[in-house]
Amino acid sequence: MQSKRAKAFSLPFLLAFLLSAAALPASSLRPERLEFSEVWAYLLAGEERFLDPALPISDLGYFGAGLSPFGKLVGVPKRESLKGYPGRVHLVVAEVGNQALTHFCLDPAYPLRDALVADIVAAAGPFDGVQIDFEAVSQADYDNFFAFLGLLKRGLGAKTLSVALPARVSEKSDYFGYERIGRLADRVVVMAYDEHWSTSAPGPVASLEWCGKVAAYALGKVPPERLVMGAPFYGRAWADKALSRAYKFSSLSELLAEKRIEDVRREGGIPFVEYVEAVTVRLFFDDAASLHSRLSMYRKAEVRSVAFWRLGQEDLAVWASIAAAPSGAAPTGATTPGAAPSGTADGGLAGIQAFAEAGPATRLYELRTAPPL
């Protein structure tokens, strides 16, 4: 398996890497190559074209499975769609928004839980493991969620059970319980992203300082061989004006007067107007340099494994600086020497904050127009 990963990248990948590298400063073309025990990446069913078998990915979270309105397992992707991939494949079962449905599936007072566990165990047959990503668990159901994971672990036997958990920095907000889930599950994937989200104030999806705090807390609760730190490949944009809204006629009249709009046209007998509005868009995203800074911070803090959300969203140049250790081996340090940022010599938890402050920041651009995003 390792020899396959060591093969040269495919021609399309190399071309994409060279094009993206050409835009980077010369110093960033020689990054440290960071080795992790496991390198996880997520892939959506239907987007298999984004998976290059030569990439240094040891574990693939295959998305698609979820819950029907009646609590039945649906959308299980076909494992045979990934025939050329040499690593381990985990069936991801996700429910991220429906708290009521999640409650009925977890509470043993209802007949859905045991049937759902049985369905997941059956669906896991061709996979190496199962990952549970339930993000709509209410506080009243945290114990039920833990019991559900216990049943699933027993049913899966030797297969890997991984659990995706939201990022936390203290026990005060750690309602799921990193520590107890870390004792039960084979892997705990901490989703260290969405520090800022679509309705929050603008900011990085995952700033280095914040990721350092999340990693420090997780390392204190989850055994290092079971902890997988998540990292985002995507960016997010915010506009300083929200222009999509409903209008009552009085407000509309004020707007027409303010903008001095006199040209009222009609379409199918319905009046409409058009006007130009200046909008400032603030866009935060990660490139290969900022991703490398985050991964370097994790390695120096002795994080052994990482997971990326998700394939198809990344700056392809990042893969040149990542390596997966041989199966079962602990990761070593950088495989290609490079200059470490100041403040990182001590490594471990003591150095994690210093590195977060010293590493290159997540890229920020401001666009002073109103183009479609």
Q: Walk across the major sheet and give the strand order.
A: 2-3-5-6-7-8-9-14
Find the structural class using helix and strand composition. Answer: alpha/beta
Shape: globular
Provide the helix percentage.
Answer: 25-40%
Low-confidence stretches: 1-15, 21-28, 335-373
> What is the CATH topology?
TIM Barrel
Highest-level CATH class? Alpha Beta
Order of helices and strands: HHEEEEEHHEHEHEHEEHEEEHEEHE
What summary fits the major beta sheet?
8 strands, parallel, barrel
Q: How many whole angstroms does the radius of gyration measure?
A: 23 Å
N/C terminus separation: 40 Å
Per CATH, which architecture? Alpha-Beta Barrel
* Overall tally of domains: 1
The portion of residues forming beta strands comes to 15-25%
Number of helices: 10
Q: Average pLDDT value?
A: 86
In CATH terms, the superfamily is: Glycosidases
Please give the number of β-strands. Answer: 16
Could you walk me through the main structural features you see in this protein, from its secondary elements to its overall organization?
- The strands form four sheets. Strands 2-3-5-6-7-8-9-14 form an eight-stranded parallel β-barrel, surrounded by five helices. The chain has a three-stranded antiparallel β-sheet with strand order 10-13-16, with no helix packed on it.
- The chain has helices spanning 2-5, 11-22, 99-106, 112-123, 142-156, 178-184, 208-219, 249-258, 288-300, 348-358; strands at 34-36, 38-44, 59-67, 73-74, 88-95, 129-134, 160-166, 187-191, 227-232, 236-239, 265-267, 270-272, 281-285, 305-309, 322-324, 363-367.
- The chain starts with a helix and ends in a 6-residue tail after the last strand.
- The chain has ten helices and 16 strands.
- It is of the alpha/beta class.
- 28% of the residues lie in helices and 22% in strands.
- It has a single domain, classed as TIM Barrel, CATH 3.20.20.
